[in-house]
Write a structure and sequence with these properties.
Pfam families: AraC_binding, HTH_18
Strand order of the largest sheet: 2-9-4-7-10
Number of helices: 11
Number of strands: 10
CATH superfamily of the largest domain: Regulatory protein AraC
Helix content: 40-55%
Number of domains: 2
Organism: Lachnospira eligens
CATH class of the largest domain: Mainly Beta
Keywords: DNA-binding, Transcription, Transcription regulation
Protein name: Helix-turn-helix domain-containing protein
GO molecular function, one term: sequence-specific DNA binding
Strand content: 15-25%
Largest sheet: 5 strands, antiparallel
Shape: globular
Distance between the termini: 34 Å
Length: 273
């Protein structure tokens, strides 16, 4: 699927709900800089897969197929900046470096926690100036953009900041996660899931916890709870109907679980949101 981005330096700053998965790979006509300020996601770029947590930053070339899956647990805040290929020429001229090859070599990096606000503030400044505040707006945008790219290039120099693609074992756990996200409304057990993916329960349990930070059952309950929260806010379904649609045994089970995770009962949550 091809998404045409009209404007150079177009930004998209959004809060993504838990357990969100794009249905299709897509491509753009411009470079995409994606920055995860909070939360986590799995990024598919071509045939490579990367796990991005808070501070993860990816540079995706034009016409490169990609998509993302956001893991359950809480909302995720992500920043996206699109820019023309020509915007990279200045640093190549100044430093005699092949910038595109550098970006292709280390397309995904981790921004140190103490610098998260620095990156987000630069993208916010670009977003503000992109609205055309005055005749100097474009000059300010280029200044901010140059600062951003230089900082990214410096981060790439340190191996600790480079995020490598997933190994085969992690790819399998990612498939398990996608299975949960797509089937949470059904009766899912770890035993049946392990058998489906040709794993032992012990192996699935250990790898799942190591990869997600959640136990299998805990993760499943989180997915169901956040799906229920979405239905509470965006539909008029009864709590009993929502419990059934989200895979809970009954409304009482959902009520107790929901309050434990979200901090308030389903009815109160619906009223406050």
């Amino acid at each position: 699927m091809y998404h045409f981005i009209n404007d150079n330096f177009h930004t998209d700053i959004a809060t993504v709900p838990p357990s969100y998965k794009m249905k299709h790979f897509h491509e753009h006509n411009r470079w995409e800089l994606m920055f995860i300020y909070s939360g986590s996601c799995t990024l598919y770029v071509g045939d490579e897969i990367y796990m991005l947590n808070s501070g993860g930053l990816a540079l995706i070339p034009p016409d490169m197929a990609h998509m993302t899956t956001y893991l359950a647990g809480s909302d995720h805040t992500r920043y996206v900046l699109y820019f023309n290929n020509d915007e990279l020429k200045w640093i190549a001229d100044d430093s005699s470096q092949d910038i595109e090859s550098i970006f292709h070599k280390h397309p995904v990096i981790h921004i140190p926690e103490r610098r998260l606000d620095y990156i987000s503030s630069i993208i916010q400044k670009i977003s503000y100036k992109h609205n055309g505040v005055d005749s100097l707006s474009l000059s300010f945008i280029h200044s901010y953009f140059h600062e951003l790219i230089l900082f990214i290039l410096r981060c790439q120099m340190y191996e600790d900041n480079v995020i490598t693609k997933m190994d085969t074992g992690n790819e399998l756990i990612q498939k398990v996660i996608e299975y949960i996200i797509e089937n949470y409304h059904n009766d899912i057990t770890m035993a049946a899931t392990a058998e489906l993916f040709n794993m032992s329960e012990s192996s699935l349990s250990k790898k799942f916890k190591a990869f997600t930070g959640f136990r299998f059952r805990e993760y499943l309950i989180n997915v169901r709870t956040h799906a229920a929260a979405d239905l509470l806010v965006n539909t008029s379904l009864s709590i009993t109907e929502i419990a059934d649609k989200c895979g809970f045994a009954d409304s009482n089970t959902m009520g107790g679980t929901f309050k434990k995770i979200m901090g308030e009962a389903p009815g109160s949550y619906r009223k406050s949101h």
